[in-house]
Amino acid sequence: MTDPELERIRRKKIMELQRKLEESQEKKVEEEREKKALEEAQRRAMLRRILTPEARERLARVRLARPQLAQAVENYLLQLAQTGQLKEKIDEDQLKRILKQVSDATRKEYRIRFKRK
């Protein structure tokens, strides 16, 4: 084989390997996206079972204003449900109490100090 022919074969092989690598990376990203979507759907279904419609609505409004708080409350509620500590659906008043508890537990305290000269 001549040098130009070897170089052409090498380039072709490199291009093929790069294409395969890109395809596998795209496939991994797509699988991860599907996995996250499935997990989120399962979370929503579980929350639908343990919250009344009014409580779900309130949690949705909280999610708009304070996403981290809503996420923490959802995790707490799902944990309670998975351990069997919930005997009935959570209504809006119970959710308010839970929101306050979680908010108080996760709230950061800020101090403002003035330096006077």
Quantity of strands, as a count: 0
Give the total of domains. 2
What is the CATH T-level topology of the largest domain?
Helicase, Ruva Protein, domain 3
Q: Helical proportion?
A: over 70%
Q: At CATH's second level, what is the architecture of the largest domain?
A: Orthogonal Bundle
Class by SSE composition:
mainly alpha
Please state the oligomeric state of the protein chains shown. Answer: single chain
Largest sheet, strands/sense/barrel: none
Number of helices, counting only DSSP H or I runs of 4 residues or more: 4
- The radius of gyration over CA amounts to 26 Å
If you average the pLDDT, what whole number results?
Answer: 90
CATH class of the largest domain: Mainly Alpha
Which shape, going by the Cα principal axes?
Answer: elongated
| CATH-defined superfamily of the largest domain | PDCD5, DNA-binding domain
Percentage beta strand = under 5%
Protein name: DNA-binding protein MK1619
GO molecular function, one term: DNA binding
Pfam families: dsDNA_bind (PF01984)
InterPro entries: DNA_bind_arc, PDCD5-like, PDCD5-like_sf
